[in-house]
Amino acid sequence: MAVNGSILKKSLLSHISEMLQKTFKKFQKSGTECDKASQNLEDDFDTCNTYATWPSSKLRTTIEDMIKEILKENSKAVLNVIDVESELNNEIPADVEEQLDFCMICSQEDQIEATELQKSLCSQYDLVGKVLWECIPLGRDLFSVLEDIIKNSSRLLFYISERFDDSDACAYIARNLLMEQDKDGANRKVIPLVTQFETPIPETFQLIDKLYLSSNLQFQFRFPALFTTEVKLEKVLRTERLKKKLDNERKSILQTIIQKKLGI
To answer: What InterPro entries does the entry give (predicted)?
Structure first.
């Protein structure tokens, strides 16, 4: 499918408008001036048909001839939609970062148990969540992606077992996330999930309300209240904002690609 409509339309309308303006201005005059105007118009068109752009069957012929000429002059400007789309997607893919209802932070030693809990919570409460170690792309380390993980998650669930304090990564996250007030209010997004009542609680979590996994009644009563419709909507709104931002970026790049191919 060829894309040359904008150039064709612009060139065609500009030329016709210019000719009509000249024609109407000249033919507002009378007598011999009208004859002169006809001669001037004939010179402008380089044709013996002075009235070629006047409304008649001749107008259609003139337009058709102009289209052919424009297409001939701009043959290199004919684009293939599939090629343009492919180049655009290579330049900037139409994907946004996945947004989560929660990210579960745990020690690597607790990853298996935390993953089982994460899957259960997602299934039971219709949530989108991941364990921390799933969110780290190949070739990246935890600390380089931590800010994005926090930004892309509505809530941060800390899986706290007796092994939590032994994890340097968990200690770093807890210390930096909870001891420092951040603009996104990350400390207000924190929900500690403690495996047992006797599990040692890290100092940074002492003053934060906790849920105990060993108490099914407490957990089943309180956990759903942490993920209300309003909280779930946060993920949707973040996703839509990212899509809108990406769409604007893709439009700008698409325009650049087309202009480059047209030699503009």
So the answer is: TIR_dom, Toll_tir_struct_dom_sf
Report pLDDT digits (tens) over 3-17.
Answer: 455 554 455 455 555
pTM for the structure as a whole: 0.65
100-227 belongs to CATH 3.40.50.10140? yes
Query: For residues 179 and 190, what is the distance between their CA atoms, to the nearest angstrom?
Result: 12
Q: Where in the chain is the domain with CATH 3.40.50.10140?
A: 100-227
Burial state string for 19-32 with b = 16 or more CB within 10 A and e = fewer than 16: beeebeebeeeeee
- The residue assigned the tokens 């001036």 is 33
From first CA to last CA, the distance across the chain in angstroms is 20
Please enumerate in sequence order all residues whose Cβ is within 8 A of that of 152, keeping only pairs 6 or more positions apart, or say none.
97, 98, 99, 100, 103, 238
Q: 120-172, pLDDT tens digit by residue?
A: 999 999 999 999 888 887 777 777 788 888 889 999 999 999 999 888 888 88
DSSP 3: E
